[in-house]
Amino acid sequence: MFFKKNYFVEFEYKGPKEKGTCSTTMRCFPSMVPKVASELKKILNSMGHDVDTIFITSIKRL
Questions:
Q1: Which domains are present in the chain?
Q2: Residue 59 in contact with residue 5, Cβ under 8 Å?
Q3: 2 pLDDT more than 90
């Protein structure tokens, strides 16, 4: 049985009007780690940032 783990994620994002560097913690199943970038993109877009690309610079398990 798998349990959710905490991950510290550092990433860069680019959009047509802005780009930036950010970090956050995420809680997910280990099998979902490859989908972190798409989830971050959805979150940033819902916050009003127009994001085209997410580049994960590091992921560390806490």
A1: 5-61 (3.10.20)
A2: no
A3: no
Tell me which residue has tokens 């099998």: 31
Which token pair is 6? Answer: 């905490």
pLDDT tens digit string along 24-59? 999 999 899 899 999 999 999 999 989 999 999 999
- Rounded to whole angstroms, the Cα distance separating 55 from 35 reads 12
What pTM was estimated for this model as a whole? 0.83
Q: Which residues of 16-50 are buried (b: 16+ CB within 10 A; e: fewer)?
A: eeeeeeeeeebeeeeeebeebbeebbeebeeeeee
